[in-house]
């Protein structure tokens, strides 16, 4: 039973007790109050009980005795009110959840006013107890009554002050909850460094020390020049050189507590990840505003006021308005309140993965304006050296404030990757003894990695797979394989595919080949990662399409619906390049370059993903989902997913996700053919077809024009 309920019973019983039985109730009240976390409160009933016993034995008239006991009852009621102030707090009109009420009660019982009031009351009770034990005539009882009344009034004053503190706490928590809801409405996407995928956060201790030390000096105005510091630090580099890992580690360093008042601190972090869905430039400004409000108290009220006004005009607005109203104006209003010496760092990684590159150029320019205007603001950016971004960050406007560090130059120093491989590979069972007699394999792997961390990381994943743990030589052959016309990363990807699914096996088993191609097309062409079950759902659907069957022959005809069990072996064999997010179970590549390789650069037709034909197959799958009951039918079609028939969240996700943008993307990249034309015509001429999907399909895209819908 709840101890609060147990103790409240005798306390409430005390409030209605008759005067002639007050003493035994006080005796019961004492152990009940012992469970209340208010120091000293439980001692008062004991002392009061002793006083009352002496008054009961006193030779005084009934009127004086009754007056004294009434004061005892008043004090008992006040003690009960303090012991459990729930009702007082609830009647204040503030309301609130159980968690907020608990915090408010803590504020009451821990308040200085209440502690001081209990101490004073305790002293008064001891004085009364001593006086009552020595002399018990009517005059003494009357004096004790007056002293007790004065003590009660003083205690009531302090108790009310304590409860007022609790009321204020409830109101503060309610306001805080409202503010949190407002910020959540502003941006509900988790894009900070704490939510980044695990592969992006991996950085071996002791590596990348040079650039991390440079970053520490940069945000304290010592890099590149202490006399004329630049407050924008731009890191560029090709795929897999470790930009995201450096950005993540820098965020961790900035988040570590420091006693120095002028120590740099993290203001906001944005990790743009194409695998998790495109982040628009407008949402970029929303996310920055939310995180700045959460990280710096002085900015919070200004950004909250701006957000309230901004959201009155709608959640989705042009980037120029979101930047001006959510960032520029509130930061300007807060400028006079910024603490002296503040250094607030904003980290943005993956600029090249933003879906809106033209709009992003303007977005970067606006962020540079903020840095120029506010001397306490520092900006760290990381990106592949794509022309749209380099044009802005190497332009004349940026020259005075942007320090450019090319991470590619670190590849010439192989020490970090060498340390990583030499410390990691021998820890794999059987590899240590193998390398003692074959040291050249590790030396060649270090040479092949050539300072590229992503190559070393994926190679280690391969060697660590169950398939090669007992066969070190075979594992090294896979990671050291070469292919004419492919660079080392693409050769590694192709080697992994050929080792996991040998070409001869695919020729001998068209069904295996069809399952593999279906899986690769789904994971490489879907807009964002899905759970293995959802991937199986789409792969099962496109497996029977003429496109897949035409690639592998009629021997791949399905005899039954494919289930998750049919794709688990494929997922397991590709663990070295496909990562399962532990937070939600979704699949994504260890590095985006693997999916890009499948779609753009794979030279072997056994594994290549055909972009246009694949988009057409997925468009047909999406169209089947938006028919009435389409999601439910598809889910029930797969035996292992039948238990999700009533999983309305999954159904809403599939229905809404593909009804709002993805369908038009697949149509835009599709090869026009009669089956797709007919399916689109049927959908668009059917009254039930969702209006948001209808708008998306009719959007002006090259694919839609090519289809030339009737």
Automatic annotation (TrEMBL):
Keywords of the record: Coiled coil, Repeat
Coiled coil: 111-138
Superkingdom, taxonomy of origin: Eukaryota
Gene3D superfamilies noted in UniProt: P-loop containing nucleotide triphosphate hydrolases
Domain TANC1/2-like winged helix: 555-621
Nephrocystin 3-like N-terminal domain sequence ranges: 216-384
Keyword Cell division belongs to the record: no
Coiled coil keyword on record: yes
Pfam families: NPHP3_N, WHD_TANC1
PANTHER family on file: AMELOGENIN
Identification of the protein by name: Uncharacterized protein
Protein source organism: Trametes coccinea (strain BRFM310) (Pycnoporus coccineus)
């Amino acid at each position: 039973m709840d101890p609060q309920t147990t103790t409240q019973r005798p306390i409430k019983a005390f409030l209605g007790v008759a005067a002639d039985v007050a003493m035994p109730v006080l005796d019961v009240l004492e152990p009940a109050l012992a469970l209340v976390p208010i120091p000293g409160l439980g001692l008062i009933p004991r002392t009061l009980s002793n006083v009352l016993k002496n008054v009961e034995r006193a030779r005084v008239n009934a009127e004086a005795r009754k007056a004294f006991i009434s004061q005892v009852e008043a004090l008992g009621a006040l003690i009960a009110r303090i012991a459990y102030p729930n009702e007082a707090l609830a009647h204040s009109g503030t309301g609130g959840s159980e968690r907020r009420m608990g915090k408010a009660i803590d504020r009451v019982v821990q308040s200085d006013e209440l502690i001081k009031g209990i101490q004073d009351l305790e002293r008064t009770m001891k004085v009364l107890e001593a006086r009552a034990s020595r002399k018990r005539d009517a005059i003494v009882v009357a004096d004790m009554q007056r002293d007790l009344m004065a003590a009660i009034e003083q205690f009531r004053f302090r108790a009310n002050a304590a409860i007022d503190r609790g009321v204020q706490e409830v109101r503060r928590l309610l306001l805080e909850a409202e503010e949190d809801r407002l910020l959540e409405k502003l941006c509900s996407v988790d894009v900070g460094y704490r939510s980044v995928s695990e592969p992006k956060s991996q950085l071996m201790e002791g590596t990348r020390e040079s650039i991390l030390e440079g970053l520490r000096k940069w945000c304290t105005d010592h890099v590149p020049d202490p006399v004329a510091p630049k407050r924008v630090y731009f890191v560029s580099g090709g795929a897999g050189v470790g930009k995201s890992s450096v950005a993540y580690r820098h965020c961790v360093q900035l988040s570590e507590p420091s006693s120095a008042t002028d120590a740099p601190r993290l203001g906001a972090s944005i990790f743009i990840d194409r695998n998790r869905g495109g982040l628009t430039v407008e949402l970029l400004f929303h996310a920055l505003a939310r995180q700045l409000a959460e990280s710096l108290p002085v900015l919070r009220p200004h950004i909250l006021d701006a957000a309230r006004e901004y959201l009155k005009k709608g959640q989705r607005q042009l980037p120029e308005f979101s930047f001006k109203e959510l960032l520029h104006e509130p930061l300007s209003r807060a400028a006079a309140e910024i603490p002296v010496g503040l250094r607030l760092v904003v980290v943005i990684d993956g600029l090249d993965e933003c879906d809106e590159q033209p709009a992003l150029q303007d977005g970067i320019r606006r962020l540079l304006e903020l840095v120029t205007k506010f001397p306490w603001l520092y900006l760290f950016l990381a990106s592949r050296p794509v022309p749209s971004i380099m044009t802005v960050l190497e332009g004349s406007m940026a020259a005075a404030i942007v320090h450019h560090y090319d991470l590619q130059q670190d590849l010439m120093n192989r020490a970090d990757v060498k340390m990583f491989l030499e410390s990691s590979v021998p820890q794999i069972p059987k590899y240590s003894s193998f390398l003692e007699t074959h040291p050249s394999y590790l030396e060649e792997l270090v040479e092949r990695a050539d300072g590229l961390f992503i190559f070393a990381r994926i190679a280690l994943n391969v060697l660590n797979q169950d398939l090669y743990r007992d066969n070190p030589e075979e594992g090294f052959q896979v990671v050291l394989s070469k292919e004419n016309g492919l660079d080392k990363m693409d050769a590694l990807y192709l080697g992994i595919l050929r080792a996991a699914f040998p070409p001869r096996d695919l020729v001998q088993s068209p069904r295996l080949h069809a399952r593999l191609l279906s899986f690769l097309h789904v994971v490489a062409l879907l807009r964002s990662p899905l759970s293995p079950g959802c991937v199986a759902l789409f792969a099962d659907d496109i497996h029977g399409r003429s496109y897949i069957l035409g690639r592998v022959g009629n021997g791949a005809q399905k005899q039954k619906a494919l289930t998750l069990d049919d794709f688990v072996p494929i997922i397991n064999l590709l663990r070295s390049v496909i990562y399962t997010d532990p937070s939600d179970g979704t699949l994504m590549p260890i590095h985006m370059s693997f999916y890009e390789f499948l779609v753009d650069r794979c030279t072997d037709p056994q594994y290549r993903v055909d972009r246009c034909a694949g988009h057409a197959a997925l468009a047909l799958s999406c169209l089947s989902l938006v028919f009435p009951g389409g999601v439910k039918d598809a889910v029930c079609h797969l035996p292992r997913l039948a238990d999700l028939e009533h999983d309305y969240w999954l159904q809403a996700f599939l229905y809404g996700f593909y009804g709002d943008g993805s369908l038009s993307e697949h149509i835009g990249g599709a090869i026009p053919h009669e089956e797709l034309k007919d399916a689109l015509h049927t959908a668009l001429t059917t009254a039930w077809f969702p209006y948001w999907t209808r708008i998306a399909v009719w959007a002006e895209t090259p694919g839609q024009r090519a289809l030339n819908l009737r």
